[in-house]
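User: Teach me something about this protein's shape.
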Amino acid sequence: MKKFFDSNALWLSMVLGCLCYRWLLPLRPLLPWLIFGMLFFTFCKVNPLDLRLRRWHWAVLALQLFLSFATYAGIYLLTGNRLLAQGLMLCFIMPTATAAPIIAGKLGGSIQNLTTFTLLSNLATSLVVPAFFPLVNPMAEKAFWPAFTLIISHVGPILVGPFVAAWLLRLSYNGYQRRKEKIKNLKSEIKNAKTFELPKGLAVIPFYLWVISITILMATVTETVLSTLNTHLSTILWLLLGSFLACLLQFGLGKLIGYHLPAPSKGKDYQDVLINPAAAPTTMAGVSSITAGQAFGQKNTSLGVWMAQSYLNPLSSLGAAAYIIWQNIFNSAQLTLAARKK
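Assistant: First, the predicted structure itself:
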């Protein structure tokens, strides 16, 4: 039963959200806490002192921000449709998903390098979104600075808070273990002191938090679409098509950047058969291509839908919601091909 659920959780959660949206809508206030939890457990997996910035990190981040601004400006200037521009802009500005390192590891990518970029991407989003969203949305006629303050007060803690909490937990645990070992041996030798590691039993928590958040998000999107379907049908269709193209573009560009800017992989998890059952690449360029592709293409859609529902036209969240489908179809195809090669 568990195996069936794990394999079909995405579709089950989406169907449940659509069919039971009326009963799930009261759960929307839980979304920020679910996002916080997913990021917290992700950041607990890696020691910040072991993280290394790579050249492709900066290239992917710069291109992500450029495409976000260019997409909104280009579509709005050409069509005058602010809703369409916001929805497709979301497909680019969303940060990397917390589940991206898991998929990258199964494909043979670098878990360590992608976790570093996940942190960098989410922190960059917490700085850029509060400054950018007031410019793309009138915010009910609010001035720029009040709108900026409002968004950063909500988005900032959700994105930066998990990193700070995970870092403090690690420091506190390591400090306690060092003191314990020092007292035990009555010496200054602390080489045998335990260091913080996330228990294996807790590693699945982000997955279940993700499933719950997808269910609530689909309920929110369903309610929004049904209430505006008659007046925005053409825009909805364009958002579906545009999100599909954005998904292919970002995965493709990420793989291209990683291939041309290869980076060494650090950490024992790389090519570990238990974590990477279908790992195939052995060259630095091949590993970086997979890693950067997931970094650019696999998005934190939960955060994207929540931001759209909170600070943009709520219907623009359909762009991020459709991206959920496209990126998971793409990932499923990648995993299937990797398993066949193995």
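Now, about its shape. Residues 29 and 169 are 26 Å apart (CA to CA). The chain has one domain: 2-341. If you'd like, I can walk through any region in more detail.
User: That's plenty for now, thanks!
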